[in-house]
Structures are given as C-alpha cells and as structure tokens.
Amino acid sequence: MRIKDKNRGRIVDQADINLEARYRLNDIFSTAWLGYALSAVAQLSIADLITEEPRSFKEIAAKAGLHAPSLYRVLRAAAANGIFVEHPVGSFSHNDVSSLLKGNHPFSWRGMAIMWNHPSCLRGWSVFSESIKDGRSGIEHAFGKRLYEHLAETPGATKAFSDAMVSNSAHTSGSIARQFPFQDYELIMDLGGGVGTLLCAILQEHPHLRGVIYEIEELLQPAQYNIDSCNLTGRARTEAGNFLKKVPPGPDLYMIKNSLWNWQDDDCRHILSNVREASQASKGQLLIIEYVIDNENAPWSTLYDLQILNMPGGRARTMSEYEKLLCQSGFAIDSVELVEDQTLVLCVPV
Ligand SMILES: C[S@@+](CC[C@H](N)C(=O)[O-])C[C@H]1O[C@@H](n2cnc3c(N)ncnc32)[C@H](O)[C@@H]1O
C-alpha cells in the first residue's frame, strides 16, 4: 500500500523495498549538502546574528550583507532538518543544536563546522577513490603532500584546523579534567596538545599540577596566548618539537589526544617508542585519549575513520590494535575508561 509518510513527507510503499532504499541513499547524499550549507553558515557567522527571539531572515541578511532569498532557503532547509527553528513569516530563532554554531558559545562547534568542509578537506574527498586504491590520504592525492606539510604552506589553514580542535576539545576537556585521576601526577606533557585547551582545563581543575604543550612551531604563539589568558603563566609552558623524532624527558605523565589516529602504524610506533625512551628517567606513564572503534563498529566511529583516511591518512583503531602497537613499543595497558565519546587508555612502561 502506498501512503504518505507523515514524518518525511514522501510516499512510501511497504511492498516496494526499492523505493525505501532509494530514499535512504538520497537522504545520505543530501545530508552532505546540509553539512556544506552549515559550513557556509559558520563561515559567515550567521548564527551570531540569530537570537533566542525569532528574527526575520530579511533583517539577518541586511545586517550581514547577504542575499536575503538565498539566506531564507538555507535557514529553511536547516530548520526543516532540526537546526534552528522557523517561525511564521520567515523568522528564525535558535535551538540547542544551532546555538553551538555561535562563535561565542562556551562549547562552540563553529570551528569544526568550518574545518569539516575546509577547501583542503573537500579537495581530498574529490579524489577519495584514489585513497581506496592505494591507502594514501585524499589530501596527499590532491596536493602531493601529507596533511601537516600541506597545512603549513596553506595560508590560514593551520589556524582553521587548530580552531576546530579547540571546538572539539572544549566540551570533553572539562569532563576529562574532572574524571581522570590527575591528582596522582605532578608534571604533564601534552604531545600535539594544540593550543592547550585540554592541558589548561586540567591545570585549572588541579592547582598543584604543572604542564607543557609540545607542539609544532606554528601553534606555540596561540598556545602561549591561551596559557596566559587562563592565568596559568607560571605553571604551563610551550615547547616546539616533532614527536616523530624526539619526545623530551621529565614529565611523570605524557598525554596524546586525538593524534595517534592521524598516523599510520609505523609512525605511531615511532611516536610511542620516543615516549617510552623519554619516560625512562621519570618512569613516566602515558595517557592516550582517542576515538576507538568498539566491538560493535559504532557507525559514527567508522565514519570518523573515513575522514581520517581522507585527511591525515591515518586510521581509527580498535582496542586490540592499540594494544598491539603499545606492546611493540614497550608499554602495557593499565586501565581503560570512557569519557563522553573519547576512550582514555592509561599505559605504563614495561
Ligand atoms: C588532531 S590535532 C589534536 C590536537 C589536540 N590534542 C586536541 O585533541 O584538540 C593533532 C595535533 O598534533 C600536532 N602535530 C602534528 N604533527 C606533529 C608532530 N610531528 N609533532 C608534534 N605535534 C604535531 C598538530 O599541530 C595538531 O595540533
């Protein structure tokens, strides 16, 4: 029987499974267009012009200097898909999801919304079929360079990606700082710690701790700015370096968050062995914070894995894959804990 599906506004026919299957595929591809539109909304800071009270699209367009009819179509599509709320006569207000697109939201997702459809990222996807043929990243096929080399020579790109990491870490950092027993340590080094969103949250939560952000040269200045803005100048510092080549000794806890999955197994073994060597003197432990593919292959984690293949050319891993890498690098797993969607793996030297 052919009936109109009230939720999705289309004719469905339980006897015609091809119709349902076609809708399903169309929904998947058109959701990607919603992502592109929301990246544009984020780039143009449109969410900052929308308030809790309904506001007309014409007023928003006039304020931002945008083409009003096109802005209406974007906001209508977003609202129809659960982002923003549309009110009569073309007015829009925020809901919980759209609020995260505001730049000044404490848990703003604006940086991620821009990064996911950054031109570099999209160029990678455009040649993703090549990645399936040889396992090299989309970015490498598109630009002939690996992600971090490409970002370093693309104006504004390192900042766009770093802003995204701040967005991504803003929420989880507080939860990690409260839930992991950082009180047992004295000096933490965050390897590839970005601008220090996580390290600063931990130091603010645990006043006895000191910390180091170990990063590429380009991020040291914004990291130092972040340290100073958090009033942590005396307790935290930055250090430039390349964890593929060397990890400095001294800390009793090394951390590496959402970074190992950027790298292939050989590179991970280099990073982990460098941590193992550095940890010798201080008997330092290692806390890996990572998106892990669980035994059920949670759909979101398998999709993140594809973006990791597209951009840095690394891979999301299962716990047993991490266990193998750690064992090959002189570490054993002490404990595993979940905080939000992150897995915290505490590793001890063996
Ligand atoms: C995916 S980001 C994660 C940032 C941060 N840990 C977080 O979770 O928000 C990876 C970080 O590793 C840094 N990075 C890349 N290659 C590096 C290297 N060879 N040595 C040290 N840091 C590196 C990047 O600059 C970037 O900030």
Characterization of the model:
It is a single chain. The protein has 350 residues and is of the alpha/beta class. The chain has two domains: 2-103, Winged helix-like DNA-binding domain superfamily/Winged helix DNA-binding domain (Arc Repressor Mutant, subunit A), CATH 1.10.10; 161-293 and 312-349, Vaccinia Virus protein VP39 (Rossmann fold, 3-Layer(aba) Sandwich), CATH 3.40.50.150. The protein contains 15 helices and 14 strands. The protein has helices spanning 17-43, 57-64, 68-80, 96-99, 110-116, 119-126, 128-134, 138-143, 147-152, 157-179, 197-205, 220-229, 265-282, 299-310, 319-328, and strands at residues 2-5, 10-13, 55-56, 85-87, 91-93, 187-191, 210-215, 236-240, 253-257, 285-290, 292-293, 317-318, 331-339, 342-349. Strands 8-7-6-9-10-14-13 form a seven-stranded mixed beta sheet, with helices on both faces. α12 links the parallel β7 (210-215) and β8 (236-240). The mean pLDDT is 95. S-adenosylmethionine binds at residues 148, 165, 168-169, 192-194, 197, 215-216, 219, 242-244, 257-259, 262.
